[in-house]
Amino acid sequence: MKITAVDEKSLDTAARIHARSWQESHRSFCAPDFIALHTPERQRKYLSNKMVRGAQVYLLADPEPAGIVSVAGSLIEDLYVLPECQNRGYGSALLAFAVNKCAGAPTLWILNNNDGARRLYERYGFRPTGKAHALSETLREIEFVLMTGENG
Q1: Which residues lie below 8 Å from residue 88, measured CB to CB, with a gap of 6+?
Q2: Which among 1, 34, 3, 2 has a CA at the least distance from the CA of 19?
Q3: What is the enclosing helix (H) or strand (E) of 12?
Q4: What is the model's pTM?
Q5: CATH number of residue 56's parent domain
Q6: What does the DSSP assignment read for 87-143?
Q7: In this structure, is residue 43 part of a structural domain?
Q8: Mean pLDDT by 10 residues, the chain (152 residues)
């Protein structure tokens, strides 16, 4: 398993992983036309803009590209693993890698309906901070922080 920084040569691959994984993870609660907007081209621009603003984006390959994560300061975002590559430890590997790249106490935001992500992050020692952003009547983002000494 190899995790490397995304550069101009690997940006298209990272964007494809992000688009496909995002679409699959949001399919059950987003409208089909909104899902369709998240093309590899759009996600390439999204990731490129993040990198210009100082975020580091990383690509996991084992040996084929399977997942991505981004880190900006102490904020972990964009942890996505291709659907067919999930449940192989890639999400955990990307999370551990990202935590080690954080400048301060690692934080992240998850959707309140993403039980799988919540289980992963809580197993690793992340806890809700009490901060949340409402996205709709039923959907909100919840902030989590890694509690010192709990990561596994």
Answers
A1: 62, 66
A2: 34
A3: helix 11-26
A4: 0.93
A5: 3.40.630.30
A6: SSSHHHHHHHHHHHH-SSS-EEEEETT-HHHHHHHHHHTEEEEEEEEESSSS-EEEE
A7: yes
A8: 97 98 93 96 98 98 97 98 96 97 96 92 96 94 86 46
